[in-house]
Amino acid sequence: MIYAYLYYVILPILTLSVILIFYRFLKGPSISDRVIALDLLITTGIGIIAVYSIIVNQSTFLDIAMILALIAFLSTVAFSYYLEKKRNNE
């Protein structure tokens, strides 16, 4: 199989990173840490989608990954704006 390294190297590393990031998401001491962990979870999910797209040779999944990346970026910017606004009001 030509993409064996994707199955045996890349996907286990991404799976381990999802587990570690999810732990940080649950344990994070502040809301900012949790938002960053959520953004990193989405980014890792995009990596998993990209690997899956390569494995099944279907480029449609890359479009989905791009839309997910845009939504993640916009939500992070919106939350940063919210935190900045909240800090200025105090």
Outline the structure in words.
This protein is an all-alpha fold and 90 residues long. The chain is built from 3 helices and no strands. The protein has helices at 4-27, 31-56, 60-89. Helix 1 runs antiparallel to helix 2 (31-56) and helix 2 (31-56) runs antiparallel to helix 3 (60-89). The mean pLDDT is 91.
Quickly describe the structure.
The chain is an all-alpha fold and 90 residues long.
* Shape category: elongated
Q: How is the biggest beta sheet arranged?
A: none
The number of distinct helices, counting runs of at least 4 residues, comes to 3
CA radius of gyration is 16 Å
Beta-strand content = under 5%
What structural class results from the helix and strand content? mainly alpha
Spans of at least 5 consecutive residues whose pLDDT stays below 50 are none
Q: What is the straight-line distance between the termini?
A: 59 Å
Features:
90 residues; mainly alpha; 3 helices
Q: How are the elements arranged and paired?
A:
Blueprint: H1 4-27, H2 31-56, H3 60-89
Helix pairs in contact: 1-2, 2-3
